[in-house]
Amino acid sequence: MQYKLWKRTNWISYIYFILLIALVVYGLLNMDAWSNHRMEIIVALVLINVFFGIWYRWYDINVDRNMITKMTANGSIALAHIDNAVKFRMIRNSAGTKFYLWQIKAHRYDQYGQVAEISYIEKMNFDTQSIPQGHVYVTYDPNKVERVFTIPNTLLGVSQASMDKVKTYESSKLKIQYLNVYYKDGIIIERYADSLKKEQLRNQIAAQADQDEKSENINVIGEVH
Predict the structure, then answer these.
(1) How many structural domains does the chain have?
(2) Stretch (H or E) spanning 92
């Protein structure tokens, strides 16, 4: 679905600029027809361009997140086991942020115990080097099966409907091994042990930086005296 959304936003921008160029060319070829309202038309074109730019950037950045949030709030989720994943292609959004699209193959479990093999494209953090095997929650609507997104773990508690679904899976006979899923300039999927190591490393770096700053301050005070 992420690949379709990326192509859709690109087509929107292409169509808009084609229409804008066509309108400008038409105006240049028929200057006598609008010469008495030249300033009003120029101002209108500038405003349309500004408003489109604002809307397009908002849409490009938020369309997938809004869909994920809405489907999760409605309880349109399912448990999935990631089997393997490979890089698909690099993309960039209208804010200049780079992502990597990954093709993920997984087994999806619905609440009735039915298992299906699925393959979907996810918009990952650009620095992602690998995606481990394990369980995650994905969006799932039987009437719109192509709308598959990996759900950040923090979103699973946004509604009673999604929490009830999670409880159903956790009370089943499935041996669930959750992965840590969160959003930071794209989806990040990693083992909890790896997340803990990253957090410990960040804390060590922050503590060292704080210690270095204190040492510099002491040296400065010593030089003053």
Answers:
(1) 1
(2) strand 77-92
